[in-house]
Amino acid sequence: MDLLEAIRHNLLSPAPLFFALGLLAAAAKSDLKLPEALYSSLTIYLLAAIGFKGGAAIQEAGLGVVWLPVLVAAVLSAAIPLWTYPVLRFLGRFPASDAASIAAHYGSVSAVTFTVATGFLANTSVPYEGYSSALLAIMESPAILVGVLLGKMTEGPGNPGPGSSLREVLREALLGKSVVLLVGALLIGFLCGKSGLEKVGGFFVAPFQGVLALFLLELGLVAGRRLRDLRRAGPFLIAFGVLIPVVHGAVGVAIGLTIGLSPGGATLLGTLCASASYIAAPAAMRLALPDANPTLSLAASLAITFPFNVSLGIPLYHEMAMRWSTP
User: 306 to each of 110, 125, 220, 271, how far by Cα in Å?
Assistant: First the structure.
């Protein structure tokens, strides 16, 4: 399947189409909205299902196979803010706190983008390493911690801010609900293994794509309401939100292939590197960098990068992986 066919196939699959429906509904100012309780329930379901399936796959593959990809993923998550911060600070001329916050968002990852990528690979019959969700779990926190350190290094000594307690920041980064649920489900899946997954497969496997479609409907509504924030973001951040995921996606794919991942696994690592957090990172940044403008980070990650990745980015990273894996 060539790139254009892959993009067409991806755009005409249920998850992106439900996301587009949400965007259109928001643009039309429809009163369509998922109840908050349902949105929270869908989030819990997706994170638990991703983690459980990944943990079972780790047990089946063995820790001797998984340790290197997990280590590389953690290093990539921590490294991405180190080069995105100076780009935002000196080329984009953002204040230090905003540059650090945005950099943390782009070093951390989006579980939903990862899930759409796994669906894309499944729909195109491309195999990938089942333990890939372990990479998702490990990439949540390192970037957040690096972003906090970057922000604190530029914070004046007389302006510690109400969120300056490192203990609070560490707690949010390592014990936030998304991290706890994802890592906890991963450990449960590892302990239960394949036999445990078979027992809950009717709940965690069969309904997964349908739940994802409903979740993306709500995200489309949220992103549609954030589109007005793009006027405040300016052209630099809009370009950043499209171009930097391509750079990060290429880096992730190339490194994934280098350490022995299959083209499908390299696609997922590239997608994780290209994604931007809009759940774990915003909560931590509110505590750590109260001077940072959350509108900029959320507009970039949710209204620019997420739609780009879901529609065009994932097929592009897959095309990179397929071409670069060919001798």
Answer: 8, 23, 10, 11
Residue 216 and residue 317: Cα distance in Å, rounded? 21
Instruction: Say if residues 99 and 85 touch (Cβ distance below 8 Å).
Output: yes
Closest CA to 259 of 146, 167, 135: 135
Exposure string for 33-50, b = 16+ CB within 10 A, e = fewer? ebeeeebeebbebbbbbb
Instruction: Please give the pLDDT value at position 115.
Output: 92
Q: How far apart are CA 236 and CA 9, in angstroms?
A: 30
pLDDT over 70, % of the chain: 93
Angle between the N-to-C axes of helices 166-175 and 280-288, in degrees from 0 to 180, rounded to the nearest 10: 180
Query: Are the CB atoms for 47 and 111 separated by under 8 Å?
Result: yes
CA dihedral 116, 120, 123, 126 (to 10 degrees): -130
Q: Is the pTM of this model over 0.85?
A: yes
Mean pLDDT for 173-180 is 75
**Mind listing the domains of the chain with CATH numbers?**
3-324 (1.20.1530.20)
- How far apart CA 96 and CA 103 sit, in angstroms, is 10
